[in-house]
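Revision sheet: structure tokens.
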Amino acid sequence: MLKQIPVKTGEFFDNLCLAGHTYYSIHSSIVKIQNYLRICLISVVLASALFGQFGAVDVTVDDRLLHSSDRQELLPLKNEIKRFFEDTQWDDEYSDLTIPLHIQIIFDGTSAKGSETIYLAQALFSNGLDQRYFDKSFTFTQKEIGTIYYDAVIFQPLSSFLSYYANLIIAGEADTYNLYSGNRFYEVARSIALRGSTSDYSRGWTERLRVENLLSGNHGLRKVRLATYSAIEHFDYQEYDAAVKQFKLMIKGLDEVHKKSPREHYTMLFMGGHAENLTKIISYLKQEQILNDLIELDPDNRDTYERGLIGKSE
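Predicted:
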């Protein structure tokens, strides 16, 4: 016969209650953890939306040369490109740049590669002020249109093309904070171009590699970027002596560019975006010599700088 073990009724119910309390405590903790993880996920999504490298992204598409069936396939493209730039976290350090971005894509036609449809197009990327890049020939496959995602390693014709220009533009922006801060973005753009040039979709990638080399190696322009933005910032804070010092560094950078390549394309684009504002500020600071230097080193905006001299003399 089994020996019965005596159990005190009060103790039994105490243990039962304790077990129930423990269960609900564990359940409550799990629910709290789940809620916390949900909050973290939402926070990451919001942070990506609010503090990304790109702010408002405007995409226009000209598909008039395509057949109607090909145009139908392109319907999701605009929104996909917009989402791609706005949602991708391109860098952890420069997380709140919110660069405005304007993209224009002009389709030239399609071709076939096996069972795949290949789109042929041109594109223009601009921040609306001092960076503008025109690409006269790029290709991508129809299967990429629905979902464009960023991959730092695997080459995809469309996403890699967009990532290349994203990194070029971020590099130019980063250089306005510290000298050569754009280096790592130029390196990413270069690695993409190298992979593209050896891929099955190599059209245009040799030229893109050349453009990256021009931009990253143009030390004069990179010094001009930093000095220009620093000078404007000092002026805004009414630190006029510091602003003048930076404007003189800007002239030194322009002179460095001028000695190697007068009227260098990307330098002239940068100066064109700032000529009006620079003229107003430098004229206000009564820096006639700097305006004269700009007339010599940036002849494309001569008329603008001369107006600053005329206004100063009146």
